[in-house]
Every structure is written in C-alpha cells, then in structure tokens.
What we know:
Rossmann fold, Dihydroorotate dehydrogenase B (pyrk subunit), domain 3
Amino acid sequence: MSRKQEETARVAGQEQLAEGIFSLLLETSLADSARPGQFVNLYCGDRSRLLPRPISICEAGDGRLRLVYRTVGEGTREFAALRPGDEVRILGCLGNGYDLEAAAGRHVVVTGGGLGVPPMLFTARLLWERMERHDALAPAGLTVVPGYRDRQTVFLDREFEGYGRVLYASDDGSIGTKGTVTDVIRAQTDDAEVIYACGPLPMLRSLAGFAEEKRGAGLNITCYVSLEERMACGIGTCLGCVVKTTEVDAHSRVHNARICTEGPVFDSRQIVW
C-alpha cells in the first residue's frame, strides 16, 4: 500500500467522454506512487460539502493522474466544471491495488463493467508493457473484457485496443457479445488463470462463482475483485464501507473488512457473497 498524503493538484485538462462521464487529468506527485486498483479522494471547493468523493485511478504516470468519473450529485458536478489551471485538494493514493505479480507466466483476463472499466485501463497497460519487455513478471497471455449496457454507454473502448485481445460484452449485443462479461469469459477464455475485475456487485459475484467452478474442476484460477461501495472518510475511520469476509479482520476482530483500507481489491475467496 502506498503512503497516503494530501496535496493540492493542478488541473491539466478535462474532457467529456459520454453522457455524464468525464475524464479529469491532474498534475500531482501522487501519480508516481499510484498502483492499479487504488483510488483518491477529491475535495470540493465548496466547504459545505464536507465529505470527499472517492474516484478510482484510471491512469497514472509522468506526474499525472487520470480520473474518469460520472456526475451523480453536486460534488461531482463541481468537478465537471474544473478547467486547466484550476486547483483541487486531493488525498491519495488510497486502498490496496491489484497483485500484478500473480500474473507472472499465467493467462490473464482484465475485465470491468460500467464505471468499473476505467481502473482496468491502468491495469491492462502495465501488464501489456511487461509482456512487451519480456519481463519475468509478464503474463503468458492477456485478454481484456470491457462490459457496457449498450453502444450509447461505451467509453474508453479504443484505448484498450493496443493491450492484447479485446472482447466486448453488452446487455443488448449492440457492441461485442450479447450478455455479461462472465458469459464472454466463460465462452471465449478457457485458458484464464487470473482474473482482475472491477464493476457492480452482481458482476463480481458472478465472476467469483465462475472462478469457484473452475477451482472445483481442478483448475488453478485466482480472481481479484475491486468492490465499489459508498465511502465517507475513505481512510478506514468511519467503518461505513465494511464487507463481510471469510477471515477475521485485525482491526475490528470480526468477519468484516473495510473496503477503503483492506480493499478495495480482494481475492474473491475472501468475500462472503
């Protein structure tokens, strides 16, 4: 886990990707320590909005963080009005990230659904770069499976195209295969040994079940899931984002874990679904 700190970031750019979906580029020293699967807290300029907004890291590097988010309230609408040169308070990098070392020499599937798609871009890029360098920790193969409701809700699709095999899933079949990301993975990636996933709870539960089926058939497969949950403090103090786990949490001494600190990424076997 990276050491967290609060600082003032400068807006380098912002663009709208789809209806209500924005891509915000920030200049910040936090970018150099960011890991795929982590998130940051953004603070509103309006001090009447006390709680920060947690946003997953879409990309990081060269002193810049890219955050892709949906406008859902006054706080995120304030972020959507930010322009180059503006400043915003930021706390990061928070939570744990994906264990990319687990991918070494194994066939990997990177998948996201809806607003769970953006953090998978960072994940896919780093894995693909390891393959390009013939790194000792490189996966043996990489498949990316973004999932969308329909063609009108698609964003970031072209950015995945350079990172291995890309298979799309959509609810209505207007892009890629009609069905869920689990349907696509089940039908077209029999060699999957590691799954990195982020998205809605039903999607993650389905993937966890798929991995359990494979293990029951004697296959060695690991599924890492990044849980999406409403957070208040984002640093583990308020206990507002706990999830029931199979192991006893060292902090609370019960079968719970704080998504913002022990997560948001978990081995799917750690979660009571």
